[in-house]
């Protein structure tokens, strides 16, 4: 891949970020064969926020109104895609506050919280509570890694007030957590029963 002059590189950088707001500075540096520092300087010159701010912006712009079962700011990680009662994806950046200081490995409750809050957010009701969760931690996650959680609602034949949500969390292509969450929620039928 050829190196671009500064002006052309900056134009292409804007296009790359518009196409994928979740592209990292490291990926951009590799794409344009420049240093990460050069990418950061280009972003500052173009007034493009860092990845974390871009994720927050996309999430608050697109999903704040969609999520009904809990306030968007209570979701652990940033929701980047959600289709209620079907599937959702969130990103969680593991920072120094999320790890054991001794070995820099992420504390399990943060990974669980990301998966559990995503399973809650996917439920299209005002009330959604976890009644049971089965979680397996497959691999340890280290400080600085990005965990992508993907939730999928299982097909349901009846209109019970329990929905099963499967959540798999990844670092790159590696599965780090597998979870099955049984979510209680109020359906229109159960609301009518409660009123009587």
TrEMBL record:
> GO MF annotations for this entry?
DNA binding; DNA-binding transcription factor activity
Q: What keywords is this UniProt entry annotated with? A: DNA-binding, Fatty acid biosynthesis, Fatty acid metabolism, Lipid biosynthesis, Lipid metabolism, Repressor, Transcription, Transcription regulation
Show the InterPro entries listed in the entry.
DeoR_HTH (IPR001034), HotDog_dom_sf (IPR029069), Transcription_factor_FapR (IPR017275), WH-like_DNA-bd_sf (IPR036388)
Q: Which residues form the HTH deoR-type domain?
A: 9-46
Query: Which GO BP terms sit in this record?
Result: fatty acid biosynthetic process; negative regulation of DNA-templated transcription; negative regulation of fatty acid biosynthetic process
Give any Pfam family that matches. Answer: HTH_DeoR
Task performed by this protein: Transcriptional factor involved in regulation of membrane lipid biosynthesis by repressing genes involved in fatty acid and phospholipid metabolism.
Q: Which family does it belong to?
A: Belongs to the FapR family.
User: What's the protein called, per UniProt?
Assistant: Transcription factor FapR
Native organism: Listeria booriae
Q: What is the lineage of its organism?
A: Bacteria, Bacillati, Bacillota, Bacilli, Bacillales
